[in-house]
Write a structure and sequence with these properties.
The structure is a homotetramer of 291-residue chains.
Chain A: E1 2-6, H1 10-21, E2 25-29, H2 36-41, E3 45-46, H3 50-53, E4 58-61, H4 66-74, H5 78-81, E5 87-90, H6 96-108, E6 112-115, E7 118-119, H7 122-126, E8 130-134, H8 138-151, E9 152-157, H9 163-192, H10 197-206, H11 212-222, H12 233-249, H13 255-269, H14 281-287
């Protein structure tokens, strides 16, 4: 396919590279030109303006957050100038509220909007093993499925209202953060009674809790290995805020998200903003006098 | 081995039966004589007093809670009358505080105390597939290992201080309860935005959250199937209380446990005491006006 | 003094009227012209544009929220066109974050910015009994003190950085909301044990808790009198959000604010958005099965 | 009146002394004989056994907690040996659950049980300015009213079921603890924004929050004066536990009490057990990195 790609950060760059490898023609654009050169060497075609990327059969965007999307796409006037029948696949983690607004805006401008946020860190993206959560017009999703197949191991479909894919993404991240908090509380309490974190986690993940989320974060916590950051704690705060906001939109209290938010602030107050978000577990230890 | 067994409730009865099947000589006793007859038919030997069970090489006890153990074993004077070199394997879920006291009491009376609480519901116990968490004198554990092998699929060792096994058990149950609360909050919020619980859970357990704890409770919540109770909600409250108390003993705040406790009370106030503890998830739905 | 007044809602209208009564020349403007006529009859001078109000020695603004201020004052270009040496007294309840931005913006345009949010409901404003919390350039505050004296019973000064007045306002509202939640929990628990709310509250306010905040909200809760709303519950949610945001700005966890937020959402999910925010207390009753 | 007095701690000793001063005949007993001598000098009559105090027209008890009452009065066999028509006025802070049991036990033994816990610290007790919360048989309360008048400034009646007085006491202490937590969170957040605690508290207590509870604890927090302890933080934890238990008995969630409990544990983990319970406020400061 002939596809544009906007937003070449840690995730976007490897995703675009995978599209090139899979034989697609990829017009790439980024706000800062840094990542363009390397991608050009891999076969992507740098374009001079976002408008040139926001054209063709489909365009994927992978911008940092709501503000970046608003600035580049909405205020940048891309919708007004989009080519006919363009499918915009927005793979960023955005607020549910903003995606509802975006979907409406695209409808007004006759641009098809597919929300397709992903689960997976950069190293997973590199292996084209992302889990992609897609929602929007089913035929448009069929059309771009080859693109998803080039970037991910599986596409999970959530109907034709785009914002629902973002609900799922936000929910997933809220759940990961909550598992980290839970592991922090559990291991702090156990340690207070003389039970070592690694032994506890080995048992847990060997029985009922044998899932990647417990294995990955359990290991980081047991080894107190919070650097380098796979996902920065301050970004975790952003995502928990998205969950709280999504809850607020449907007046759903999320007491666990509130606790996690408070623990994240505590962690930031103690200098852990740029550590991996598993460093959230240190709060439980510090509060128990085990810091 | 020649082993006594005290406490033949839902769990104890099938555990004792498995010991018989494995060829051990099992002297069984229960406060109410109901379960004795069936076990006798399977080859166990009913004895007339707890004292006769609290004798021989080893005795296993599987009583309901702290109060039952205090009444039958401590106040019943069993420690004073125990045979020499007896190993007492206490497999019940008890408070950490009480187990510390019990271990000390056994030491005074020269009875070896092994704590060996289990993970697994009655149907798992029936298949001899329990996970057994053991702590206490290592040589005594070696001695009773054939008994564990007859009842469980794996024994997890946590050193020679008995109460640590109970810390692990209490921590595990606190974590299960927290996962239920988390699934309740997540699915309520998602539902508010039109995402069906079963689709959300299918995706979650197909990715990062692919562990029995998410699969089992996710399915119950998605299907709103809270009866019959695999584990009653009011017993869940008891166990979360044990976690809060164990946290208090080492001044470790457990904010998630406090939230779960409040949700359990809310559930009980709305008539769900005797439902499965996955009914805890209904609280999040009710609070969001989705009840 | 010759003073402009922008924003004539429930509060602004009576405050402007009090300025007129005190002999000041008041140029009034409002987005919707509704309230202008009545004020003209009382002696105020309606002006045709916000720009004409944003002029003279001083201008008071009392707009609904951040968005209204951004739209009317910032995007309306008032700062660029302000008369020289103008003092802008912003008496609205705004986010601390936005006030920091506003103060900076005013500095750039050489307009003096005084933050002066108030405590008191419309009936208190009518009696010119507001408590005014002021921060900003001390000489400018001296200059406008006669205006404050015409509207309030006392001015509390918080130094020369305007945002600090808003910190105090936001903190105060967070504390009121927390007292309501506290009274809800306490009276629900007491009622569960057969103690009537009015008797409990009479004792409390007759001893350690003899403050208006307990007397006023205690009476509303004891009488379950949530209509008409003195202050709407949904506005309470807005203010608690401001507190959480102000906490986040300085990475200060506010666990009570999180609890209150969750209770407010629960209340909104049950149809109480437009009731008085003391209806927040119903959540504690409902959760205890006393709804 | 001829009255016995059991339990001569910090509170009991001054209360008994006030009874003597008011002209009553007071037979005093204490587990450790220390306080007896001083009281004898003031005119009280030491007796050799609790049984001799648990006799006459009325006996007041002011023991430390549930365990002390159980040990001295219940297990000490005092009820079996009580004189006919004896009125037992129990003024201690006890668990609601235990008072229900005690009231029933007294009924069985034909001893009248009046619950009459008090609000006030030792220096208030010394001035005979306690607030007394009384419940039980109204005629018995009339009979002992002169005793209350000698110790307190006012008696608040809560009907004829004794445990209700304890519900009120437990509720009151939960509310004080919550106000301390609230002041901690509010002043920490304000300080993060540069607003001094004493200025904030002066404004608050000068307006809506002008009650002793805010004045007393606000001053301690503003001055960071946590020693000597007026009421020890670890006793505060005991009382919050009583509130949580009383809530549990009627399945009433108390989210604020859970937060306070967690903060108290955090304070204890950081060495503040024996400081005044207003030191609870330090937790909010520490969590915000302001410790």
């Amino acid at each position: 396919m002939d596809v544009g790609f906007i937003g070449l950060g840690d995730m976007g760059a490897v995703m675009a590279a995978n599209l090139v490898k899979a034989g697609h023609t990829v017009r790439v654009w980024n706000r800062s030109p840094g990542p363009l050169e390397a991608l050009e060497r891999e076969g992507a075609r740098p374009v001079a303006s976002a408008r040139q990327a926001f054209a063709g059969e489909a365009v994927i965007s992978m911008l940092a957050d709501d503000d970046a999307v608003r600035s580049v796409i909405v205020e940048g006037g891309l919708l007004e100038q989009a080519t006919k029948n363009l499918i915009h696949v927005n793979m960023a983690t955005l607020s549910v509220r903003f995606v509802r607004e975006l979907a409406e805006l695209h409808r007004t401008h006759n641009v098809t909007y597919i929300a397709a946020p992903v689960f997976g860190r950069p190293e997973v993206a590199e292996l084209a093993k992302l889990h992609i959560v897609a929602a929007g017009d089913p035929r448009a999703i069929e059309t771009v499925q080859p693109l998803f197949d080039a970037m991910g191991q599986k596409t999970w479909r959530f109907g034709d209202e785009p914002h629902r894919a973002n609900v799922v993404k936000v929910t997933g991240n809220f759940m990961i953060a909550s598992v980290i908090e839970l592991l922090g509380e559990a291991t702090a309490m156990a340690k207070g009674h003389g039970v070592a974190a690694d032994e506890l986690i080995q048992m847990l993940t060997g029985t009922l809790f044998g899932a990647p989320v417990f294995q990955i974060y359990g290991a980081l916590i047991a080894q107190q290995r919070f650097e380098p950051a796979g996902f920065k704690l301050q970004l975790g705060l952003k995502d928990v805020r998205l969950a709280l906001e999504a809850g607020e939109d449907v007046h759903a209290p999320l007491p666990f998200a509130s606790i996690v938010r408070d623990s994240l602030l505590d962690a930031i107050a103690h200098g852990d903003s740029n550590k991996d978000w598993s460093a959230l577990s240190r709060v439980a230890f510090r509060r128990a006098g085990l810091g």
